[in-house]
Design a protein that fits this description.
The protein is mostly helical. It has one domain: Hypothetical protein af1432. The chain is built from twelve helices and no strands. The protein has helices at residues 49-58, 61-66, 77-100, 104-107, 112-121, 131-134, 142-148, 151-159, 166-173, 195-209, 221-233, 239-252. It starts with 48 loop residues before the first helix and ends in a 7-residue tail after the last helix.
Amino acid sequence: MGLEINKPLCVGGINQNIYLNPYRNNIKFGQGLNADTFERSTVDKYTTEAAIQRMINANPNIKKITKTFNPDMQLNMKDLDKLLKGHSTETKNIANGIAENLPFSLKNKVDIKALNDAAYLHDLGKVLIPENILNKPAKLDEAETKIMHKHSELSYELLKNSGLNEKTLKLIRNHHQNAKKTGYPWVEQNFNADLDLQILSVADKYSALVEVRPYKNKLNTKQALTIIYQDVKEGKLHPFVFKALVDFVNNSKIETTVA
């Protein structure tokens, strides 16, 4: 019999958030701008250059966000393609692995569709981050860090009018947040880092830690898990989610080699 957790340790309630969008087959970008019928039918249809341009045109707020660092709205499609094939796909796989290794009582509360879509699309906003910041072979300075931190908000703004449900959009926007609300972007005081968000957040973090990045070498699994365990001790991550990650890593013997 599964163990029910009404109020997880140091986290806030884990709530069931299952939402089926009855209009999911009628995707629109903005006001009356229909998705091309010849484009891909899965969520990667949102990642084409044409789709991204439509999303930009449908949401003036995107230009406001990028006006200080990308006023010409140049799209970094080369790095986006690499990101989607590597980190985003790996984050999705890890998130699924974590969900599968949760206790039964928690596993049934995971919105797999929203989690999968958010995991694949969470870094879409990096298409608007300048290449010299995205691939800087050194630590970012304060100004560059502020720009980089815009990527999750940009992912949300790009996809806001796409037809994705609100659950998925919130996961994408808040994938760098945690139960202590010390991440980014800003969230309201009543923000709840629910089960799906914690899975996505830790899957993203683990994938990033064990990848090679321009500014760092990859860590091994033990090093990565040690860093993430600190989040558990600080109350940012539920122990059951961390245990599910550990079990997934141990069972699959994964060692991410994404460049």
